[in-house]
Specification:
The structure is a single chain. This protein has about 325 residues and is α/β, with parallel strands linked by helices. It has a single domain, classed as 3-Layer(aba) Sandwich (UDP-N-acetylmuramoyl-L-alanine:D-glutamate ligase). The protein is built from 11 helices and 15 strands. It has helices at about 5-20, 60-70, 85-100, 140-145, 145-150, 165-175, 190-195, 205-210, 220-230, 270-280, 285-300, and strands at about 25-30, 35-40, 50-60, 75-80, 80-85, 100, 105-110, 115-120, 125-130, 155-160, 180, 200, 235-240, 245-250, 250-255. It has a 9-stranded mixed beta sheet, sandwiched between helices. It is globular, with a radius of gyration of 19 Å. It starts with a helix and ends in a 15-residue tail after the last helix. The chain binds adenosine-5'-diphosphate and magnesium ion. One of its GO terms (molecular function) is kinase activity.
Length: about 325
């Protein structure tokens, strides 16, 4: 562990004990980014320009989106991610605090810059992301430094884009916490990650990587979910291409089709889904009730521009 990481770990522990000391519902381990969302009628070709019809500048990144959703649903939530040593990072954390997210353990990368996502959305919902996440991945030492926070929560959501995902999931699992994985595990860590997991959620592309089958029908998704359940998790949520979301658990499953409401931008819908699923399970709701809450949260996120959820407490 470097001196900086040691210092961060100490500050995290001390400030955590001083400021909170109680139990948390959820910790989210994942990306934090400045999210610039631009709506255009149509993407211009090279050497051409388009007018921006609507612009939003948001606290974004999957980790932050999920934490915002958890807080909006009334859960106490902490975020573990990385910001740079810049004004953008300071502003994003101020927004996170205003969103009632505990950011005590967020790592400030000295001389680093905060991640940036530019999300260009065409009318009709086709999105393109330009992403700069260089130097913003959590290290295993930083995850270890946040152990005190990870084990203080009932549930820990881990985004599998993080190389230190297994370290975070293992700490949570060993402490008996609910481990919720978002994404597709890298092949070399697949067995270990699935063995730590209580819940796994994958969008259609991630589900194809996770299961080896294209999610082109509900039947395929049910079969694929059953095979993932056999590897350890007690709940699996898989998106079925253009159709809806399948939720499966050892003695049941439910498929919830997408509503016909117009889709502006699906960005963040998966983040709302996993957050609502985790909040419901943490409150002791049944798998089916949690699944319905999750699908409703996803559905309510596709109607607006950008990944920031807008969920009530209902
Ligand atoms: N028309 C729709 N109605 C409701 N939900 C939708 C619709 N289209 C997509 N979704 C939701 O969007 C999710 C997209 O997930 P994902 O790609 O992981 O989003 P992100 O990572 O941006 O949060 C799907 O799992 C589904 O729940
Ligand atoms: Mg996703």
């Amino acid at each position: 562990m470097t001196a900086t990481a040691r210092r961060q770990a100490r500050i995290c522990r001390e400030r955590y004990l001083a400021g909170f000391g109680g139990e948390l519902d959820i910790v989210v381990v994942g990306q934090i980014a400045r999210d610039i969302v631009l709506l255009v009628d149509e993407l211009p070709g090279a050497r051409a320009a388009a007018d921006v019809r609507e612009r939003r500048e948001l606290l974004g990144g999957k980790g932050a989106n999920q934490a915002v959703a958890c807080a909006q649903l009334g859960a106490s939530v902490a975020l573990l991610g990385v910001v740079g040593d810049d004004e953008v990072g300071t502003a994003l954390l101020a927004q996170a605090r205003a969103d009632h997210i505990d950011v005590v353990c967020v790592v400030h990368r000295p001389e680093g810059r905060t991640a940036l996502i530019v999300n260009v959305v065409e009318r009709g919902g086709a999105w393109r992301y330009l992403e700069d996440f260089a130097g913003t991945e959590l290290t295993e030492a930083e995850v270890e430094g946040a152990r005190g926070t990870l084990v203080a929560a009932s549930s820990v959501i881990v985004q599998l884009q993080q190389p230190a995902a297994l370290a975070a999931a293992t700490i949570a699992r060993d402490a008996g916490r609910r481990v919720v994985l978002d994404g597709a595990p890298p092949a070399d860590q697949r067995a270990d990650l699935l063995a730590t997991a209580d819940v796994v959620r994958a969008d259609a592309k991630e589900a194809a990587l996770l299961t080896g089958s294209r999610m082109d029908s509900v039947d395929t998704a049910v079969r694929a979910a059953r095979s993932v359940l056999a590897e350890g998790p007690s709940m699996v949520a898989l998106a079925v291409e253009a159709e809806g979301d399948l939720f499966a658990w050892p003695d049941g499953h439910v498929f919830i089709p997408y509503t016909a409401d117009p889709t502006v931008d699906t960005t963040g819908a998966g983040d709302s889904l996993i957050a609502a699923l985790t909040v419901a399970l943490t409150r002791g709701e049944s798998p089916e009730a949690a699944a319905r809450a999750a699908a409703a949260a996803a559905g309510s996120t596709v109607g607006h521009l950008g990944g920031r959820p807008a969920l009530g407490r209902a």
